[in-house]
Design goal:
The protein is of the alpha/beta class. It has a single domain, classed as P-loop containing nucleotide triphosphate hydrolases (Rossmann fold, 3-Layer(aba) Sandwich). It has eight helices and ten strands. The protein has a ten-stranded mixed sheet. Helix 3 runs parallel beside helix 5 and helix 4 crosses helix 5.
């Protein structure tokens, strides 16, 4: 029987990493830190797929946030699993996963530091905890006369992935709970980047009531999968792109995994996401468990 706390939480930190934050580097020129074989880093670009010319597409999400949207079955889960998979293989990244359906991100539960399912009270509790962690990190950053955390500080980034944003903001819970979730997510997206909090949010219903302007304008990166209208596409990519020919409405219904990505470069890029099947995910999880084993005493 599992000894995990209710809801699947399992908060793990690298040993005593807070006191080590901002120590002066001990590496000499040409020396590299020891990392497990096969490990990645959240500071490295994440391979998402290929563009329409067959060229690889990769984005760096450290110090960034990403909003993805599109109709059901358009392929949003593909990009979420790719991003979570990269985070899972990165020992310098903690996984905080929110999944109202409990099955899209559920396979990653065993290696997630926090997993939130369909309970709105649990979602609010964990978002508050993440907000507190963010404030603690800013106190450390301020004391160190710095502006953001860096790769060799010894403080892990936190990858906060929210699948189906609408479930937590308009579907489940009371109106007050839904509003608190919106406020907490908005704060994390607005202030979290320099503290190493990366928010990835996805929704099947790209509409203004689910993703208000005050929230969506804070996401630096956007990804629009198949949408039924130009206005829905613009809600994801931002107003005006559909009129310039960048509309997710033009993506064919059968083209699952195709999307317009607005990231580095400042212009939408049409691409197809890589796909992880269940067997791929199980293999990644097995390797991630090895990489994330606590250091020997």
């Amino acid at each position: 029987m599992s000894n995990h706390p209710p809801g699947g939480d399992r908060v793990r930190r690298r040993r005593s990493h807070l006191p080590r934050l901002f120590r002066k580097p001990t590496l000499t020129t040409g020396e590299t830190a020891s990392v497990p074989v096969g490990a990645l880093s959240i500071y490295e670009p994440i391979h998402l797929g290929i563009d329409e010319d067959g060229q690889p597409v990769a984005v760096t999400l450290m110090y960034r946030n990403l909003l993805a949207g599109g109709e059901p079955g358009s392929g949003k889960s593909s990009v979420l699993n790719i991003i979570v998979g990269h985070g899972a293989l990165s020992p310098d990244c903690r996984l905080w996963l929110f999944d109202g359906k409990r099955v899209e991100l559920g396979p990653w539960r065993d290696i997630a530091d926090v997993f939130v399912g369909s309970n709105p009270d649990h979602a609010i509790q964990k978002l508050r905890e993440l907000q507190t962690e963010m404030d603690t990190r800013y106190a450390l950053i301020e004391a160190a006369h710095r502006r953001k955390i860096a790769r060799h500080d010894g403080l892990d980034a936190i990858l906060c992935v929210i699948d189906e944003l609408a479930y937590f903001t308009v579907t489940t819970g009371t109106k007050d709970q839904q509003e608190e979730v919106r406020i907490l997510i908005r704060d994390l997206v607005a202030r979290g980047r320099a503290a190493g909090v990366i928010v990835i949010a996805a929704t099947q219903r790209p509409s203004a009531d689910i993703i208000p302007t005050s929230l969506r304008d804070l996401f630096g990166y956007r990804m629009a999968f198949r949408c039924t209208t130009d206005s829905s596409s613009d809600i994801i990519l931002s107003q005006g792109w559909a009129g310039q020919g960048y509309s997710a409405k033009t993506i064919r219904p059968e083209a699952i995994g195709q999307a317009w990505l607005l990231a580095e470069g400042g212009f939408p890029r049409r691409m197809r996401c890589a796909y992880l099947n269940d067997a791929h995910i199980r293999t990644l999880i097995s390797h991630a468990k090895h990489l994330r084993r606590p250091p020997a005493a």
